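Researcher: Sequence recovery benchmark, item below. Answer with residues only.
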């Protein structure tokens, strides 16, 4: 695909004669809604999810960042390359192709953190990946955009929203730090905050989805091709992230985490970059894609959570049928079994990397009673 976005009127991206879609009239409202709701959601959500982070596990990910490295490879390797292939395969207009590529080069969004919690993923890895990808975006975003657009003869200067990246980092690190501190000092209260935050986060996600559908209802028929890409792009990200994590021999828990982190992009950052880099005529062809991508990634996330919860429920029912006599025992040990079941599902990275015989025997002994209790749930 070769696009010469010069001042010529032959280039669709610079044509001022093309009528603007109806949805562009609501662009200011969309921007305001997403900015305010995203800021509130990010702060509250990251504080509540920070209450699930343990300092020892977080330090383990920093010391041996294998999971973080796989996540960054997915985020800034697979996603930009996929965006480039989609732009070529669907023969998009130059302005639309740039919008798809910018979305692929954005770091991970905080939506993945709440979905990771709902699928019993590795919260320490999820928050670490979101933070590290946002930091890496300072250099990887301009590098990726340069590599994939050098053949397009693009004359517009793409403005990297460094201020937006900095705000995102602040909204990530400070609430998470407070959440980690609360979990360290008051572990019982942190569980209440975590449950409340997850519920509030889910409600806010639904509010964002409904607001996007209502405010942009006149734009959904504007370009079927672009809407199709916004639907399959996050799905491809989830699948490729899971497969790469599986290929690198990550645990099932980390595979789920990396999969959700890969498909979930920072929508607000993409919208900000488009606004800073292009005029209103260009935005008319671009802004519907990040909006549709955000709505479809919400839908994909809810479907993944529903599939996992269904599988988990069927697995529990299967264990109950095999062990019907221990239902009363499990009812008495409900709180204990939930903690031990999570410990049973989690895979220790240190054991996986350095499988010393003594550690393996200790781990086996520690997990022996867990299987019995978990099977009784």
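Model:
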């Amino acid at each position: 695909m070769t696009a010469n976005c010069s001042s010529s009127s032959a280039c669709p991206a610079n044509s001022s004669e093309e009528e603007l879609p109806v949805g562009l009239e609501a662009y200011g409202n969309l921007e305001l809604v997403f900015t305010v709701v995203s800021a509130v959601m990010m702060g509250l959500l990251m504080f509540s999810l920070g209450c699930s982070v343990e300092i020892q596990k977080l330090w383990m990910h920093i010391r041996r960042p294998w999971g973080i490295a796989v996540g960054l490879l997915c985020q800034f390797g697979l996603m930009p390359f996929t965006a480039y292939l989609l732009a070529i395969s669907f023969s998009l207009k130059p302005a639309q192709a740039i919008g798809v590529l910018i979305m692929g080069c954005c770091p991970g969004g905080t939506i993945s953190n709440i979905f990771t919690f709902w699928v019993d993923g590795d919260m320490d890895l999820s928050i670490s990946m979101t933070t590290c990808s946002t930091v890496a975006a300072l250099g990887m975003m301009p590098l990726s955009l340069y590599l994939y657009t050098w053949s397009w003869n693009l004359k517009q200067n793409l403005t990297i929203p460094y201020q937006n990246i900095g705000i995102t980092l602040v909204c990530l690190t400070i609430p998470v730090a407070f959440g980690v501190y609360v979990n360290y000092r008051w572990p019982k209260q942190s569980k209440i905050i975590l449950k409340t935050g997850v519920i509030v986060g889910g409600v806010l996600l639904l509010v964002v989805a409904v607001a996007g559908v209502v405010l942009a209802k006149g734009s959904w028929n504007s370009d079927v091709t672009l809407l199709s890409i916004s639907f399959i792009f996050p799905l491809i990200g989830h699948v490729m992230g899971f497969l790469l994590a599986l290929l690198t021999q990550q645990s099932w828990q980390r595979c789920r985490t990396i999969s959700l982190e890969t498909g979930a992009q920072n929508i607000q950052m993409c919208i900000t970059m488009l606004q800073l880099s292009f005029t209103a005529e260009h935005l008319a062809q671009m802004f519907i894609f990040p909006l549709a991508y955000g709505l479809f990634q919400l839908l994909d996330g809810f479907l993944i959570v529903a599939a996992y919860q269904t599988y988990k429920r069927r697995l529990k029912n299967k264990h109950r049928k095999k062990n019907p006599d221990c239902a009363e025992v499990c009812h008495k040990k409900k709180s204990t079994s939930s903690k031990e079941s999570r410990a049973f599902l989690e895979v220790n990275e240190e054991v996986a990397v350095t499988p010393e015989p003594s550690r393996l025997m200790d781990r086996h002994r520690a997990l022996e009673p867990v299987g019995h209790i978990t099977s009784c749930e």
